[in-house]
Known about the structure:
Blueprint: H1 2-12, E1 25-38, E2 41-48, E3 61-68, E4 71-78, E5 89-94, H2 100-108, E6 114-121, E7 134-139, H3 143-155, E8 162-168, H4 177-186, E9 190-196, E10 206-207, H5 212-218, E11 226-232, H6 233-246, E12 253-258, E13 275-278, E14 283-286, H7 293-299, E15 317-327, H8 335-339, E16 342-344, E17 348-356
Parallel strand pairs: 7-8, 7-11, 8-9, 9-10, 11-12, 13-17
Antiparallel strand pairs: 1-2, 1-6, 2-5, 3-4, 3-6, 13-14, 15-16, 15-17
Amino acid sequence: MNAHASVQTSDVVPTLRQRQWAEKTRNVVLCRHVIDETHDVKTFVLTSAADRMFCFSAGQYVLVHLRINGTAMTRSYSVSSPPTRPLDLQITVKRTPGGLASNWLHDNLRPGSKIEIEGPLGSFNLDELPSQKPVFLSGGSGVTPTMSMLRALTDRADDRQIHFIYSAKTPGDIIFRSELDALAARFANVHVTLVCSQGGPAWTGSTGRIDGRMLLNLVPDLHKRTVFACGPEGYMKTARACLDAIGLAPAQYHEESFGGSSSSRPELGSAVRSSVRFSRSGVEHHCTSGETLLEAARNCGIYIPTACQQGVCGTCRIAKLSGEVVMDDLGGLNAEEKSAGYVLACCSRPQGSVLLDV
């Protein structure tokens, strides 16, 4: 009787493999809960509409596909929840002034709402970049992937010595503040430092901006550690400069950048006359100075999927069949993809004639 019952149960209940999230495909997810983290940051708790479990690496991101005012758009958001809790997936979104996607999510995504996500994506994660002595540096909403990493490690009661240094504008802008305080109090191996550029009279923590002296005071053995950094481009420039001055080896530094600025891109000489030919479309476009491949495609009415438009997410990856480009990417392609001839349309500018497999 018991054996017969177990057979019937296996016919009804999906196996773990059957409940596995289909990676790198679009999946419909249901918003179960919305958490107000700060005055302008919300966490959206998502579950699979098909009752599947999420599988990703701590630090990865997903693409969120939206339709706003009849226009389809895609945005990339790091997963803030850890893979050790596979029944839901959380994205933490800061409302950006003028930002279509972030404002739409804040104003419209409610418990019961459905959206489409795609992923997981990204090589900024603990599985591909393992470390026995990690230091997590983050600024603003860049705390989301590092928080996923910290949560994953503490969920497993990992005993490695962890330093988590997070910078925010004011104490009211600190995302996950109560949880960070609780993790530091619960785990002796977890050292959390919160830094505010504008502390205020009631703030007793660190004030100012990170610099080399502060980092070495907080992490005396920094030279023996691996740094995982994420934040707005201004914060990232400061972090890179500090670590370079300290002498941290490049192999010990990994980053994910939020909010890159086009002003940091190198200017290209106007003397280079460039053109892009789209092989499958049969269209050729003569580029203006500094025009990206993505801009060239849009000017021709050719669709190339894109999300971050900063060289981070890799969504606009395309195969370059011939020609040369200057690519100002922020990690959106790995070494194998670059060797295979792929470029990122959003941050690649042609140098002469370029042929693309589009």
